[in-house]
Amino acid sequence: MASEVQSKSVPMEEASFEIASGGGGRARDDFDDDGRVKRTGTLVTASAHIITAVIGSGVLSLAWALSQLGWIAGPTVLLIFSLITWFCSSLLADCYRSPQGKRNYRYKDAVRTHLGGVSSKLCALAQYVNLVGVTIGYTITTAISMGAVKRSNCFHRNGHDAACGESNTTNMIIFACIQIVLSQIPNFHKIWWLSIVAAIMSVAYSSIGLGLSIAKIAEGPHARTSLTGVTVGVDVSGSEKVWRTFQALGDIAFAYAYSNVLIEIQDTLRSSPPENQVMKKATTIGVLTTTTFYMLCGVLGYAAFGNTAPGNFLTGFGFYDPFWLVDIGNICIVVHLIGAYQVFAQPIFQFIETWSRNRWPDNRFVTTEHVINIPLLGDCPFSLFRMVWRSLFVIVTAVVAMIFPFFNDFLGLIGAVSFWPLTVHFPVEMYIVQAKIRRFSATWTWLKILSIVCLIVSLVAACGSVQGLIHSLQDYKPFKIS
């Protein structure tokens, strides 16, 4: 193989041009109005990116979230979060281009254009902290699902009461190795196929969970449920009920978190028809699809398990049989989150690499690309800097996941921290500036009220998740067999 691989070193900008043109250059029509290679994204690919980003590990915790909130508040909160996400994402889609028509390649670029430099820095901090948190959360979830496959087979062979332990640490190492390889994909435009595969997987495991819930309900006897969720004095104490309710809000917020990559997804779309129109349609399709699955999985999952619903309804072993179907569901989760990890990690990669090139423009380690010709794959870009730094990022996120492998608590905290600033605050503020809405007008007032209410929800959800993490850490020993 080594003899078949040929490489040459060229500056990064020349490499991207040469790869695109096969060494012979491209016609002007092959480039967009900003001088970059013409984007080819469509409504289908954008919808796939959104579904991949939204339907993630969040769907697995919805039965538990509804068990904390009950039949009245649970579905109502789900619907409210979906409407807020859809509305604010539609506002954000209009901010991809500046009033002068210039493209904003990243979320923080859009914020800088409309709100200024200080807001842009705050946005970047919130966005990248959230993205890092999501990659850690996906590492935890994937490892749990990988372990669940082995445990499911163990239970099938030895009985449901067997001591079937599994090391999540080993599974996280395997997942990290896969991500190190996939992270060498240069950018978002190259992973459209991965998002489509991941979107199919997300629909598959959601459908499996849905089918298993229906089967469990049909078996009877019916699980104990209530209008207000877990019962104080029976299931939990009064204080625990409050904390769990707050944490459930964070879990639901996390389930709808994708605004932090919306601009990056929109930047993959072709310029005709207008990107904002296509993105709004993709947002509608994505949010409608995910809300349908969320409502079904959450409601039927709660009906199946009642107030004792597990935190992850495919790995908490509320289901044992048919074991092969549970295995397929967890394998679909693994495949989906392998792709979803890249959807959330690519913006981090692009930010660090762009910053590094601007900071050290004369450093060949940072700026040089190698064009490698690999049989069957053709010309492939390779950068030593990209390989080293992206591999380190994957390793660090895996180590953090090994130290704090708490599914519900971690997801709730990520959702709480990111929901208000990224999903609500910045889109609302940019829309107010862009549309030149007069202060204290009716529209300005209700938008501000929406933002303030969502801030309060984020704060209480964060408090609930932090309390859950503290409680989980009390008796936890890192790297043990679970």
TrEMBL record:
The keyword Iron-sulfur does not apply. It is found in: Cell membrane. Residues 40-470 form the Amino acid transporter transmembrane domain. GO terms for molecular function: symporter activity. One of its GO terms (biological process) is amino acid transport. InterPro entries: AA_transpt_TM. Keywords: Amino-acid transport, Cell membrane, Membrane, Symport, Transmembrane, Transmembrane helix, Transport. One of its GO terms (cellular component) is plasma membrane. Pfam families: Aa_trans. The chain crosses the membrane at residues 43-66, 72-93, 128-149, 191-215, 282-303, 323-344, 387-407, 413-433, 445-470. Its main location: membrane. Belongs to the amino acid/polyamine transporter 2 family. Amino acid/auxin permease (AAAP) (TC 2.A.18.2) subfamily. This is Amino acid transporter transmembrane domain-containing protein. It comes from Musa balbisiana.
